[in-house]
Write a structure and sequence with these properties.
Shape: globular
Radius of gyration: 18 Å
Number of helices: 15
CATH architecture: Orthogonal Bundle
CATH class: Mainly Alpha
Mean pLDDT: 95
Order of helices and strands: HHHHEEHHHHHHHHHHH
Low-confidence stretches: none
Strand content: under 5%
CATH topology: Farnesyl Diphosphate Synthase
Structural class: mainly alpha
Largest sheet: 2 strands, antiparallel
CATH superfamily: Farnesyl Diphosphate Synthase
Bound molecules: geranylgeranyl diphosphate
Strand order of the largest sheet: 1-2
Distance between the termini: 24 Å
Helix content: over 70%
């Protein structure tokens, strides 16, 4: 199957997988459930679930065993977007080509949407999976909790908020992004791996190296897109980093060097996958998609 067909198939699977887990808009509290569905369904590239399924393929996992993890990681991602868009954080009005959750509903509802999506993420990951070892499932829960908590995504967001208007060194910028964006991308890759045949220690280290590199790569490209693409293409407000005087790879390195950095990280990610051979085909293709995407 060519990459585009695989990606569309898995995006469709991700959408249906999320849809099944979302509380119906007809069940009380209706407004909260309507807003949760509004935020989570019908948009986004689904990069994190795609990474889960791709690593699931690498370890020979049945996609049915990957569904819980793929939903969990996307639900955490959507919660972070809803909270990030709130007036007390990034204060944005456009997300995934439509009004942000607090604009469409209200701030308090958007806050609760994020909270409830986070709970639903852990509920999804804790669900029984036929043939899955309970100890392994606990490791997965721990991984997602750490990746999204104060030593992961939420911590990265705290550093990001504190960095507005500050000048950071390249290593400080990397530290922020490894946490804010990279931790969840890494978790997506590793959670997929947990769903299949166990990897030996060396292969795990190798995959972890790929996962961390892909996380940083995603953010460097996000910075480049924020400075170069337009709002209609991105489906979110373009050029916000400069307006908010936020440190990014582009304003620290300049656009040409930021693109060189992305090229370097792409090469490093492919090298990290090389020992896995054909089994890592989808992860390699996703790496290219992360770099070559236009939104
Ligand atoms: C509020 C705890 C908390 C965390 C927020 C992820 C995040 C932390 C904020 C989002 C702000 C942002 C633009 C981060 C840069 C990278 C990123 C996560 C971009 C959006 O992800 P995509 O491109 O979005 O995968 P889609 O809509 O395709 O899912």
């Amino acid at each position: 199957m060519d990459f585009l067909t695989w990606m569309e198939t898995m995006q469709q699977r991700s959408e249906e997988n999320l849809e099944r887990r979302m509380p119906s808009a007809g069940i009380a509290p209706q407004r909260l459930h309507t807003a949760m569905r509004y935020a989570a369904l019908g948009g986004g590239k689904r990069v994190r679930p795609l990474l889960c399924y791709a690593t699931g393929e690498l370890t020979g996992a049945d996609p049915l065993r990957v569904d819980n993890a793929a939903a969990a990681v996307e639900l955490i991602h959507v919660y972070s977007l809803v909270h990030d868009d709130l007036p007390c954080m990034d204060d944005d009005v456009l997300r995934r080509g439509k009004p942000t959750c607090h604009v469409e509903f209200d701030d308090a509802t958007a806050l609760l949407v994020g909270d409830a999506l986070q709970s639903l993420a852990f509920q999804s990951l804790a669900k029984n999976v036929p043939g899955m070892d309970a100890a392994r499932q606990l490791d997965m829960l721990l991984l997602l909790a750490q990746a999204s908590g104060s030593r992961g995504m939420a911590g990265g967001q705290a550093i990001d908020l504190a960095a507005v208007g500050q000048s950071l060194t390249l290593s400080e910028l990397e530290f922020m992004h490894i946490h804010k964006t990279g931790a969840l991308i890494r978790a997506a890759v590793l959670l997929g791996a947990y769903c299949g045949a166990p990897l030996d220690a060396a292969a795990w280290v190798q995959l972890d190296h790929f996962a961390k590199t892909a996380g940083l790569l995603f953010q460097v490209v996000d910075d480049i897109l924020d400075s170069e693409a337009d709002t209609a293409t991105l489906g979110k407000t373009a050029g916000k980093d400069a307006v908010h005087n936020k440190p990014t790879y582009v304003n620290l390195l300049g656009i040409a060097q930021a693109k060189e950095k992305a090229a370097e990280l792409r090469a490093q990610a492919h090298s990290a996958l090389a020992p896995f051979g054909l089994a890592a085909r989808r992860l390699g293709e996703l790496t290219n998609f992360i770099v070559d995407r236009s939104f």
